[in-house]
Amino acid sequence: MRRHILKLWHRLRQLERHELAWLVVGLSACLALLLFVMLAGEVMDGDTRALDTRILAGLRSPDDPSRPRGPWWLEFVLLDLTALGGPTVLSLVVLAIVGFLLLQQRYRTALVIIITAGSGDLLNEILKNVFLRPRPSVVPHLREVVSTSFPSGHAMQSAIIYLTLGAMLMRIAERRLTKAYCLIVAVLLTLLVGASRVYLGVHYPSDVIGGWTFGFAWASICWLVAQRFDRETGVAGERKNHA
Length: 243
Prior knowledge:
Elements: H1 2-14, H2 17-45, H3 49-58, H4 72-82, H5 87-103, H6 107-131, H7 153-172, H8 176-199, H9 205-228, H10 230-233, H11 235-241
């Protein structure tokens, strides 16, 4: 047994750095997809409803469900934060980044971001129409909503776009501290957007977790495709030409 473990460790050490990155991201994407499928099954069977309901009710005043817990300004802050995962803001972010990349003549990198964002939006609509989960009726909504509930579009789209942009910036950055900063900001924005949806009562916690897991998986898959066909997408070549 020990001999097999040492042999496996030796093979892992022989892998190049980028191959290890592909391996880690690929496994993470598979795990995220598995978690999404398992969660979706639980949601459809109604097994998450009790916990979802308890969390939503716990975030409101027992005397008045229309009043969220916390200081008076928290609701206004989260209303602003939730807009960061909305289609208008995300579209502006994508257009701004794509415009910058076009000015830098990074045409294929811009195309990768457009395809990732566009496919993510399409998948979100498909998933919502497949599951058709009604919005929470446990507490009054603090923001108007019109679509179905599972998975959370704000959580899913913010995960796809912010994590993709964070990964792109990490490739451009040279210092490890800068790379870590890009990753932390991308993850933080994604978490804040998802949390705001639950606080505002427009999504169950399981909706948000489903959006996060699928969004992370899709962003990872798009990253892997871009890496696998690096010569075709021109990401590495563009970086060298414009360094």
